[in-house]
Write a structure and sequence with these properties.
Blueprint (H helix, E strand, L loop, with lengths): L1 H6 L2 E2 L14 E6 L9 H9 L8 E3 L10 E3 L4 E2 L4
Antiparallel strand pairs: 1-5, 2-3, 2-4
Amino acid sequence: MFTAAQRLGYRWPTLCGGKGTCRTCFVQVEEGAENCSPVGPLEREGIESLRRPVDGLTRLACRLRVDGPVTVTKRGVRRRVQE
């Protein structure tokens, strides 16, 4: 999700560049959780460190893979300014 958002021109908060270590890219899945990849070990550790439930609704955008429509909420995401 992180990479796709960047390709579409969104600026996504991150410190680690999508390696799954900074945990600043976490999102809340609002719709389409069934279209999301399973939570892997690195992502699980990151979600737990945020003191959030590992329920499939809080996800790290850099680890999240989707195969259908998904709606997420993330504060701080914005369109890049066109140069």
